[in-house]
Structure to design on (258 residues):
């Protein structure tokens, strides 16, 4: 009886092993004969456009657009930090003219990349633009309508808010000029803040001059206004008593206007 049971158990075990072999071997065989994955080999060759190239192009464009005499100027590309992949060919980077007077600080700027003169892609830059230069500043409060003296001003290095500005960068541009407003110490003097002082004062005797082709006529007059060169003032002709308008030429000379 025991032998019959053992024999039946062995038959069951053999049948189980046979079933495993029958169903598993095809799977193993199938997995071994699967074709290999094909790797694409027709990817076109590429090249990199680096942040350094973008920086150089932006610097060149700004230098050509804005005069930068005696200006310490720099551009730092904050984005993109990684190179941009483009097809092989002659690369051109186009950045349009700046429309914000060359404002410094962090700026978002849009440009375009071309390959062999064909548009390839748009690129959005984030750049930090900085500029420093020496400008003329007062060393004291200077009231409006005062004439600036050499001891009133000095030179100071400042950060420029924009590459296009009206700060004075030469003391000779300020000395002898009349202020149009109160000037505060250590704040840059701008061109509109100054004007030439009057060379003719109200009540001065002046020469009235009339030019018409080769004809020159002169008369003596009394200035009714004060004025600097180029300003139009009223002058009374002493001989006729008539009041005429004339342009100040220099000290004591007024050209009559028609």
């Amino acid at each position: 009886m025991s032998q019959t049971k053992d024999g039946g158990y062995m038959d069951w075990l053999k049948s189980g092993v046979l079933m495993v072999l029958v169903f598993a071997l095809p799977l193993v065989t199938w997995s071994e004969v699967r074709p290999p994955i094909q790797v694409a080999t027709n990817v076109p060759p590429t090249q990199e456009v680096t942040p350094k190239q973008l920086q150089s192009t932006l610097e060149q464009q700004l230098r050509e657009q804005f005069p930068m005499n005696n200006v310490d100027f720099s551009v730092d590309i904050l984005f993109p930090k990684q190179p941009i992949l483009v097809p092989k060919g002659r690369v051109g980077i186009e950045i349009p003219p700046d429309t914000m007077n060359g404002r410094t600080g962090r700026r978002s700027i849009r440009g375009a990349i071309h390959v062999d003169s064909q548009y390839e892609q748009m690129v959005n830059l984030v750049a930090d633009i900085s500029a420093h230069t020496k400008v003329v500043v007062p060393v004291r409060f200077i009231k409006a309508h005062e004439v600036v003296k050499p001891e009133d001003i000095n030179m100071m290095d400042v950060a420029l808010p924009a590459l296009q500005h009206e700060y004075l960068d030469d003391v000779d541009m300020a000395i002898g000029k009349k202020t149009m407003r109160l000037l505060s110490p250590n704040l840059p003097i701008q061109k509109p803040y100054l004007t030439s002082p009057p060379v003719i004062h109200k009540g001065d005797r002046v020469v009235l001059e009339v030019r018409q082709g080769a004809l020159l006529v002169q008369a003596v007059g009394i200035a009714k206004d004060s004025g600097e060169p180029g300003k139009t003032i009223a002058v009374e002709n002493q001989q006729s008593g008539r009041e005429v308008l004339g342009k100040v030429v220099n000290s004591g000379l007024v050209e009559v206007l028609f």
Notes: The first strand starts at residue 46 and ends at 49. The CA atoms of residues 211 and 217 lie 7 Å apart. The chain has three domains: 46-131, 132-195, 205-256.
